[in-house]
Design a protein that fits this description.
Residues 1-25 form the signal peptide. Keywords: Signal. This is Small metal-binding protein. With 116 residues, the chain is mostly helical. It has a single domain, classed as Four Helix Bundle (Hemerythrin (Met), subunit A) (Up-down Bundle), CATH 1.20.120. 75% of the residues lie in helices and 0% in strands. Helix 3 (49-69) runs parallel beside helix 5. The longest helix is centred in the middle third of the chain and has 21 residues, at 49-69. The radius of gyration is 20 Å and the shape is elongated. 34% of the residues are buried. Mean pLDDT is 85; it is low at 16-25.
Length: 116
Amino acid sequence: MLSRRLTIIAMMSMGLGVFAQPAFADPAYLEDAIAETREAIAAGKQLQAGSFVEHADQAIDHARSAVWQTPVDEIRKGIKLMRKAVKLAKGTNSDKRIAKATEQAEFALVQFEAVK
């Protein structure tokens, strides 16, 4: 009976790539982040704070997955801007704050699209 370590070494030497990572990043995460950001912007323009926050949170989740695979500063900046937008819009009915949050989301969208 082989030990666990020897089994892993044997599998790696045979080319099975137990710990292999993809050669390229999956662009679906970034595309999903862009789509959710656009949805958030649309909700923000209609002054729907709850829907804005929901879509912005989803955009942040997708962008975090994208930055994990492709560590690019533009995605990090976009995440930071989306977090600021969520902070502005969460728990408010103020039209000015929702408009400011929508503006931050538009800036984040520019950052996300710059990566494409």
